[in-house]
Design a protein that fits this description.
Elements: H1 6-19, H2 24-40, E1 49-53, H3 57-71, E2 76-81, H4 89-99, E3 104-107, E4 121-125, H5 137-148, E5 152-156, E6 179-183, E7 201-205, H6 211-216, E8 221-223, H7 226-232, E9 247-251, H8 258-269, E10 275-280, H9 285-291, E11 296-299, E12 322-325, H10 333-345, E13 350-352, H11 354-362, E14 375-376, H12 380-386, H13 393-407, E15 410-413, E16 419-421, E17 427-429, H14 442-455, H15 460-482, H16 489-494
Parallel strand pairs: 1-2, 1-4, 2-3, 4-5, 5-6, 6-7, 8-17, 9-10, 9-12, 10-11, 12-13, 13-14, 14-15
Antiparallel strand pairs: 15-16, 16-17
Bound molecules: ligand NAX and potassium ion (K).
Length: 499
């Protein structure tokens, strides 16, 4: 699903109005009706509703929502925040209609702000995507009151005070909703870590804006929906054999961190690789052969760390279909040499994770040896070591984009809504996963998954988008079955489902 800028969304509204065609006021009515459908499916008429609306079209949506909810039997109190002298035309239209049905409260100064009780639902329609400067005056006081109140808060389109596609200032006053119900497409601001308390749980509702315009509009930002992830998944042909699915090599482990290799290897096997070889320090040999009997194990000549040498003759790096390197490897000089040799010899995309990334950060000349379309999977700290500090989440996205483009690689920046940057400079945000995944070893599982997908012939962007989605989905399954708190990386790899 595309993510558009505020300006593009404005054009999308206009295009829909002109080409459907539909009168703006009817589009507002459709948006309000769709919001009400969402609302009534979650909250019964037993909850009193308190609406706070502004004077623009977000406020107009609010007034139309109030009218429809009232007609459906909800008790609703309407509060209009008079932060400016002018209202939008569609606001005025809905204002006239609602005035015939109920009394409206006008908030012009702080002592007009009503008390909010804990069993009420607040609908926030003060500002929407038209916000273009920090909120002050009476609107600021209202937002502060709502944030202090014990009630549940639902924001219409976007939390009032939050910019959809640019950074807010540190002192900005912004609604902290429990839910955001947004029209048609997600806003980029919803996906950034620092905004999470200004978004809550968010839901997209389809208000039938022009599909043609969305299809034609270029954007670097995408949000992976479950349907899109499912479409990427390839079905197996009846006459396939293990050779069809590639032979992967995982370069993993060091003394005390063989478990990382076990997790990556198991995840690789659980993600459909045809054959798997694991190269690990000699101390990991018995562990791997026991814990992952399906994999072949190539013990390194070094007892404790990877040096890349092995007593067991095996196929050279170039002959593996895909290679993953990093889980548990540490940063020994022998291992840095191994990485240098690997990067010099292997020309297909690699998966590079964990200490392999830290070795790249410490040996910058290695960056230019990385094969094009390799997948790097840093968490934010590793990414900072590879690049630079950022000022805010938008700045981070720019750095991410430039980095992926400069080295022609795929960068999977891990976190809530993992951001996957492509060599072309696009960014795909993931939609699956939960905080339960923030536990040791889940990154190793991801490396195993991505290596398996590359081995099966997925291109790097497909592998990253699909692999990250499936990894999060497995975490969501575990979360539902046994909760997020006790989730382990083993649970996640056991929960992987590929159908
Ligand atoms: N255009 C359309 O066809 C549709 C728009 N919709 C709604 O319209 C919203 C956007 O409406 P608007 O563009 O009218 O803008 P808003 O309702 O978000 O804001 C109202 C106006 O307030 C002013 N303003 C901005 N920041 C301010 C601040 N800090 N203090 C005081 N005033 C400020 C601006 O002039 C802005 O236009 C969307 O979020 C959505 O809720 C929906 O009705 C769907 C259809
Ligand atoms: K709002």
């Amino acid at each position: 699903m595309k993510i558009l800028s505020v300006e593009q969304i404005r054009q999308l509204d206009q295009y829909t109005i002109q080409h459907e065609p539909i009168a703006p006021i009817n589009l507002m009515e459709r948006a309000a009706q769709t919001f009400v459908d969402w609302f009534t499916a979650r909250f019964t008429t037993s909850y009193p509703v308190k609406l706070f609306c502004g004077l623009g079209n977000n406020g107009g949506d609010g007034l139309a929502i109030a009218r429809i909810l009232m007609q459906q039997g909800y008790t609703i109190e309407v509060n209009i925040v008079r932060y400016a002298p002018r209202e939008s035309d569609d606001f005025m239209h809905n204002h006239r209609r609602l005035k015939l049905l109920t009394t409206l409260n006008y908030i012009e100064q702080p002592n007009n702000i009503p008390a909010i009780r804990h069993n009420e639902i607040v609908i926030d329609a003060i500002f929407g995507s038209g916000l273009d400067r920090p909120v002050d005056g009476i609107a600021k006081s209202v937002i502060e009151t709502i944030n202090r109140a014990p009630a549940k808060v639902v924001s219409v389109d976007i939390a009032s005070g939050l910019y959809p596609d640019k950074p807010n200032g540190p002192d900005d006053v912004i609604i902290e909703p429990d839910y955001t119900v947004t029209f048609q497409l997600p806003k980029i601001g919803f996906l950034l870590p620092r905004n999470s308390r200004y978004v809550g749980q968010w839901h997209i509702i389809d208000i039938k804006l022009s599909k043609r315009f969305i299809d034609q509009t270029p954007t670097p930002y995408f949000y992976t929906t479950p349907e899109e992830a499912r479409l990427l998944l390839r079905q197996r042909e009846r006459f396939s054999h293990k050779g069809t699915f590639g032979h992967a090599l995982l370069l993993v482990g060091s003394y005390g961190k063989i478990g990382a290799g076990v997790l990556a290897a198991r995840a690789c096997l659980r993600s459909g690789v045809g054959l798997l070889t694991v190269q690990a320090p000699r101390c990991g040999y018995a562990v791997l052969q026991t814990a992952v009997p399906e994999a072949m194990c190539r013990p390194d000549t070094h007892q404790y760390v990877l040096s890349g040498q092995s007593e067991i003759e095996g196929i050279p790096y170039e002959e593996f279909t895909a290679i993953g390197v990093g889980p548990g490897i540490g940063k020994a000089p022998e291992t840095a040499n191994m990485l240098r040799t690997l990067l010099s010899q292997y020309r297909n995309p690699l998966v590079i994770d964990a200490d392999a990334l830290n070795l790249l950060a410490e040996n910058r000349d290695l960056m230019s040896l990385i094969p094009e379309h390799s997948i790097l999977t840093p968490h934010p700290k590793e990414f900072e070591r590879l690049t630079q500090k950022w000022e805010n989440d938008y700045d981070k996205l720019e750095i991410l984009c430039d980095f992926a483009r400069r080295y022609r690689i795929v960068v999977v920046l891990k976190g809530a809504h993992t951001a996957i940057a492509t060599p072309e400079g696009d960014i795909h945000f993931n939609s699956s996963g939960n905080p339960g995944l923030s536990t040791g070893g889940t990154g190793d599982v991801l490396t195993g998954i991505l290596t398996a997908l590359l081995a099966q012939g997925y291109d790097s962007v497909e592998a990253a988008v699909l692999g990250v989605y499936q990894h999060g989905l497995a975490g969501d399954l575990v979360g539902r079955q046994r909760g997020q708190i006790g989730m382990t990386a083993t649970d996640v790899l056991d929960a992987l489902r590929w159908s």
